[in-house]
Amino acid sequence: MARFVVAKVGEIPRGEQKVVRVKGREILLLNVDDEYAALLNRCPHEGAKLLCGARVGLLESDEPGRFSYTRQGEFLRCPWHGWEFEIRTGQSWCDPKDTRIKNYDVKIEPGESLAKGPYVAESFPVHVEDSYIVIYL
Amino acid sequence: MSDTAKREVAVASAQKLGLFDADIHPVPKSGTEIRSYLAPDWHGHFDHYREFQRKPFANANSYPRAVRALSRRDSWPPGGGLPGSDLEFMREQHLDPYNIECGVLQVLDPVGNKLRHPGFAAAMCSAINDWQALAWAEPEPRLKGSIIVPQEDTRAAIREIERLGRSPLFRQIMISPRSEEPLGRPRYWPIYEAAEALGISVTLHVGGENGFPVTPAGHPSFFFEQRESHVPAAEAVLTSLILEGVIERFPRLRVITVEAGGIGWVPALSWRLDHCWERMGGEIPQVRKPPSSYLRSNFWFSSQPIDEPEKPEHLREVFDWVGWDRILFATDYPHWDFDDPKYAVKFAMTPAEQQMFFRDNARTAFGLQ
Amino acid sequence: MDAGIHSIDCDIHPSIPGTKALMPYLEEHWRDHLSFRGIDDVELTYNAYRNPFSCRPDWRPPSGKPGGDPSQVLEQALDAFGASIGILNPLWGGPVVYADDMAFALCHAANDWIAATWLDRDPRLRASMLVPFESPELAAEEIEHRARDPRFVQVLLLAMTEAPLGRRHYWPIYRAAARAGLPIAIHAGTGYRNPPTGIGWPSTYVEDYAAQTGGFQTQVLSLMTEGVLTKFPELKVVLVESGVAWLTSFLWRLNKTWRGVRIEVPWIKEAPAEILRRSLRMTIQPLNAPKGEEQVRRMLDHIGGDHMLLFSTDYPHWHFDGGDAMPPGLPAALHRKIRLDNPLETYSRLTETLQ
Ligand code: FES
Asked: Rounded to a whole number, what is the distance in Å from the CA of A52 to chain B's nearest CA?
């Protein structure tokens, strides 16, 4: 598995996301409370690009008329038909078993350790003093 | 070939095929754009009274939609304005990448035909039609307009049809299925007579508020339910058109349902109507053939929002039941329940089937061949 | 007919002759009231009994309403089809009289009359109870009272009501039914509190009849979205004379829409089709199916649950001719299930009496 350095830590604010390209794939990098997730930028349903998806929380209810809203920002709602996906796992909330967004291993690594190589950084230099978001593919 | 492999071949050839999209929604750039197309006599009315409909909220739908502007979140034009308001962006996001050969404009907003004031309704319909022609169909020949008519005032509707029915910029007459009376009733027949004489189709795009509860059991609570109510409404309209004898009377009439909850309901409706006709045909002697036969000869059904059975091959069986020549592809761009031609159908189609579904059936239904 | 298996007919229509017959079961002030005002009958317009469809020609009595003579019904609906149990669903206007108290009094008396005139007469008979469902507190009162008689096996509602049946003001009905272990039956029909279609008033009876499926779809969806079926998970909802085929794509659409608009109804935690396959039951007349066994099999496959089908003749309504009430095309392997197993599983009250 190769390591791809795709962004510098700090570049994507909490609750936001950006698209990076790795080996011809469009991957959506999302910052969830300063942890990162990497998802294919394509909805498994009808292929919408997920970049425009809404970052939302999880609305649950034990009983008609009662609402509990938690985990703000941990879900992505598809920009087309509104299916909800858990960002950490890529799983669809309504159909976790059979519907999921393809996801990739992602890590934060210090520039120092990257300096030992090997890694691929497509568009920017890596400095030992910074930390980077690395996708394993 | 595996199903996936077949689907990939299918996808590749679908992209090459010029598509016919039966449902594209344009909107004006601003709340007042339409005023510039409105006859000056009505400007005062427009400024002071504007839309006056049978619904509770002035600036929201009775059942607020699933998402802002009912639209895909990626369809807001980068230059500003509402989704569907920017022709250039529509070309770039929709017409070009999907290789749309022809797209039919279905105008839901601004509202013309559902306005309560008859004179203003007629004036707004004309304004909307002129706007479709000048802002959309003339600059972009791939787009075709729909003649919006003040359907409750048949004489005014006929005037509008006469005015535009021969223009190559328009392909059809658009009627709201939620009319004041079921659309098969005789008061609406002049519209069908005119459509038949001119050889243009009638489309029934879901929506519009007629002041009746959306279900026969009163007002439901949720958008979820209002959306589903489009299916019984479409069933009731088709039932009315067939059982009142409209098709017997106007045998060359072409009627197209658009966005009526996909197509899965069509077979069950046809079986049920045949059963009813066998037993109670005496009440409707004007209906000379089993109702299902009219559904097979004069009606077409657009596929969006496409049915998604748990087992994809069940949809193929539905296509078989409805008839492969009756089903039209539509995207509903830029609305949220958009169907992407590459992924909407989850079973494998042969190239010949694709050609019918994505293009040729629509050419026939809209009278282009 | 399959010899040797019990058969449970889940939809037989006895007719209520009018208020005169109910007098012995009404309080005195209602007796005077009804007779003074000339309220002799509140037959449902929907139940147009002169319509050829409302009664098979060979079942039509020489005079009066079809299904009016118990001995005729016992012979034609039960004996002729070898039914070991028949569930009576009286279609009558009592439940939809606008004045709540009168509706309650009429339902209460009609249930008493059904018990005395029909249920006491033959041990094979069971009945659905009439309740003034537009007045849910009173309906619940009648359910509590009537549930003491084990021969009443379910609560009868109509497919078209004043508001969709899931709305919370109707919940006393479900609470009472669930407590008594009774299913809710929704029968085709309307008191015309709303136009029979969302597009207004059609011209003909046949259109109203065809449009009943729209009522059923509304009620089922409302019971699901509003959370009745999750709040009362044991509650069975039996759709009677609903047609069956429409359920196929209805389930698909609900699954699809739910994924997109779940935030409106977050108490729905699993796919609607799963909830409905668990809660819904449907009688088989009419099936409204395509022709041919292979086509019927496909349709059933699309619905995905042959446990939902309940045997019915819908006597005296005219859906079929001859002596076989199983719609053509229903695979023989399912017959026993439909005739016996499914009804027994649906109506717990039947098991005790059928050994
Ligand atoms: S494309 Fe994402 S939900 Fe349909």
From this structure: 6
Are the CB atoms for B300 and B256 separated by under 8 Å?
A: yes
Atom of ligand 1 nearest to the CA of A43: 2
- Note the pLDDT tens digit of each residue in B174-225: 999 999 999 999 999 999 999 999 999 999 999 999 999 999 999 999 999 9
**pLDDT value of position C3:** 47
Mean pLDDT score across all residues of chain C: 96
CB within 8 Å: B228 and C201: no
Interchain CB contacts (distance < 8 Å): B and C: 238
* Per-residue confidence (pLDDT) for residue C351, from 0 to 100: 85
Q: Helix (H, G, I), strand (E, B), or coil: what is residue C338? A: helix
Strands A25-32, A17-22: pairing kind: antiparallel
Domains, in order of start, for chain C: 8-354 (3.20.20.140)
pLDDT at A112: 85
- pTM comes to 0.96
CA–CA dist C66, C318 (Å, integer): 11
pLDDT of residue A84: 98
Residue nearest to atom 3 of ligand 1 (CA): A81
DSSP H or E stretch at residue A3: strand A3-8
Report the domain count for chain A.
1
Return the residue whose CA atom lies nearest to atom 1 of ligand 1: A46
Could you tell me which chain A residue has the CA closest to the CA of C265?
A64
Question: Residue A58 belongs to what domain range?
Answer: 9-107
Please give all residues whose beta carbon lies within 6 A of any atom in ligand 1, as ranges.
A 43, 45-48, 78, 80-81, 83
Q: pLDDT at residue C285 above 50? A: yes
Q: Under an 8 A CB cutoff, do A61 and C226 touch? A: no
Mean pLDDT of C103-113: 98
**Token pair of C332, please?**
């023989």
- For residue C187, the chain B residues in CB contact (below 8 A) are none
What is the interface size between A and C, counted as CB pairs within 8 Å?
37
Question: In which order are the strands placed within the sheet that holds C8-12?
Answer: C8-12, C85-88, C125-130, C152-160, C184-190, C237-240, C280-283, C309-310
Structural domains of chain B in order of their starting residue, each with its CATH number = 3-365 (3.20.20.140)
Q: How far is the CA of A105 from the centre of ligand 1 (A)?
A: 23
CATH of the domain at A62: 2.102.10.10
Has residue A127 been placed in a domain? no
- CA C338 to centroid of ligand 1, rounded, Å: 39
Cite the beta strand spans of chain C per DSSP E.
8-12, 85-88, 125-130, 152-160, 184-190, 237-240, 280-283, 309-310
Helix (H) or strand (E) holding B301, with range, is strand B299-302
Interface list for B 53-82 with C (CB within 8 A): 66
| pLDDT tens sequence across C22-38 | 999 999 999 999 999 99
Question: Are B302 and B256 a contacting pair, CB within 8 Å?
Answer: yes
